[in-house]
């Protein structure tokens, strides 16, 4: 797995990250499917240890990764695809103000079957101040979707991928 992640990262198609909290490995986040040219996009997948779920670890990690994608890497769009029943992952993108775009029927093969996923997305223009800054502002009582033209992933949830 590590060899594959490194190979894809060196080819410019993936950005794999580990997530630490208080010096402990608690999760993983990957920006994959990076496409250049007229699309300039990628999709985010993640998982986090249930022991730290609900502490803002994953929204912070996603916000940092999205800011890196927009400001450093040069992507224009980031998607997160989440199984409809995965409420913890849906809360992550809702907290961050991702826009829900619709359903992708039978999108990924997980646990022996093709599973539907909801698509959430952001473009660089929707977060000119940066997603991490917007996330911090919303935690202090500001509007979570300030600067977002929409209303509201990942393939993971708190505890297991997919």
Keywords:
162 residues, alpha+beta, Aminopeptidase, 6-stranded mixed sheet, 6 strands, 35% strand, disordered C terminus
List the helices and strands and how they pair.
Layout: H1 2-10, E1 15-21, E2 24-35, E3 41-48, H2 57-73, E4 77-82, H3 87-96, E5 99-110, E6 113-123, H4 131-139
Parallel strand pairs: 3-4
Antiparallel strand pairs: 1-2, 2-3, 4-6, 5-6
Helix pairs in contact: 2-3, 2-4
Write a structural description.
The chain is α+β, with helices and mostly antiparallel strands and 162 residues long. It has one domain (2-139): Aminopeptidase (3-Layer(aba) Sandwich), CATH 3.40.630. The protein contains four helices and six strands. It has helices spanning 2-10, 57-73, 87-96, 131-139, and strands spanning 15-21, 24-35, 41-48, 77-82, 99-110, 113-123. The protein has a six-stranded mixed β-sheet, sandwiched between helices. Strand 2 (24-35) and strand 3 (41-48) form a beta hairpin. Helix 2 (57-73) crosses helix 3 (87-96) and helix 2 runs antiparallel to helix 4. The longest helix is centred in the middle third of the chain and has 17 residues, at 57-73. The two termini are 17 Å apart. Residues 146-162 have low confidence and may be disordered.
Any idea what the radius of gyration is? Answer: 15 Å
- For the secondary structure, the number of strands is 6
Shape, per Cα inertia axes: globular
Unreliable segments (pLDDT under 50, ≥5 consecutive)?
A: 146-162
Number of domains: 1
Relevant CATH superfamily: Gcn5-related N-acetyltransferase (GNAT)
Percent helix, as a range, is 25-40%
Report how far apart the termini are.
17 Å
The class by helix and strand makeup works out as alpha+beta
How would you sum up the major sheet?
A: 6 strands, mixed
CATH names the topology as Aminopeptidase
DSSP strand (E) fraction?
25-35%
| Secondary-structure arrangement, i.e. CATH architecture | 3-Layer(aba) Sandwich
CATH class: Alpha Beta
The strand line-up of the biggest sheet is 1-2-3-4-6-5
**Average pLDDT, all residues:** 89
């Amino acid at each position: 797995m590590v060899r594959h992640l490194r190979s894809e990262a060196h080819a410019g198609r993936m950005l794999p990250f580990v997530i630490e909290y208080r010096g402990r490995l608690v999760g993983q986040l990957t920006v994959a499917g990076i496409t250049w040219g007229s699309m300039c996009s990628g999709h985010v997948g993640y998982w986090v240890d249930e022991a730290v779920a609900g502490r803002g670890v994953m929204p912070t990690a996603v916000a940092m990764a999205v800011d890196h994608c927009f400001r450093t890497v040069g992507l224009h769009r980031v998607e997160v695809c989440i199984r409809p029943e995965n409420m913890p992952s849906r809360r992550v993108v809702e907290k961050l103000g991702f826009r829900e775009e619709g359903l992708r029927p039978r999108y990924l093969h997980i646990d022996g079957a093709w599973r539907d996923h909801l698509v959430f997305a952001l473009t660089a223009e929707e977060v000119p101040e940066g997603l991490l800054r917007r996330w911090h502002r919303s935690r202090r009582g500001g509007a979570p979707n300030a600067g977002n033209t929409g209303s509201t992933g990942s393939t993971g949830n708190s505890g297991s991928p997919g």
